[in-house]
Design brief:
Elements lengths: L3 H16 L5 H12 L4 H21 L1 E6 L5 H12 L7 E6 L6 E6 L2 E6 H18 L1 H8 L1
Parallel strand pairs: 1-2
Antiparallel strand pairs: 1-3, 3-4
Helix pairs in contact: 1-3
Length: 146
């Protein structure tokens, strides 16, 4: 088990890597060597896994994924970025994904939050709502059983 201090250090390092957009292999190697410095071999793997999890979490939290059935106009993407960047101290990475399964509309993800305004989502909601009505309606159940 990794000590809380080591998990905290791995998270801090992941945050620094993302904030500084440190994708240079030399910078990453130096940071990882520092993270593992003076640790027994059996702890190094735990430290690397903690760093990997923290890095994925940090990247996920700072990425705005915009899904739509067709490419969005740059102005629309800019408006979304502006809206989701409020109260943030650093810029978001933007990832656009073409998702024909939405039928029409958009789905926007940032971290663990999902905001969806799509025809597919609305149809799914309506299907569930109708199914619940059919299951809980005594008149429909009696007629169906006859």
């Amino acid at each position: 088990m990794l000590a809380a201090r080591d998990r905290h250090l791995a998270k801090r390092l992941a945050r620094i890597v993302v904030e500084n957009d440190a994708t240079d292999p030399e910078q990453l190697r130096a940071a990882l060597e520092r993270l593992q410095q003076g640790r027994p071999i059996h702890q190094r793997r735990l430290v690397l896994k903690a760093f990997q999890r923290a890095l994925i979490e940090e990247l996920h939290r700072n990425t705005l994924t915009v899904e739509s059935t067709q490419p969005l106009e740059p102005e629309t993407v800019d408006q979304l970025v502006t809206a989701f960047s409020r109260d943030r101290d650093r810029p978001l990475r933007v990832q656009q994904v073409i998702a024909p399964e939405l039928i029409a509309g958009v789905r926007v993800r940032m971290g663990d939050s999902v905001f969806e305004a799509s025809v597919a989502n609305r149809l799914e909601w309506m299907t569930g709502h109708i199914r619940q009505m059919l299951l809980h309606s005594p008149q429909l159940t009696d007629e169906h059983d006859s």
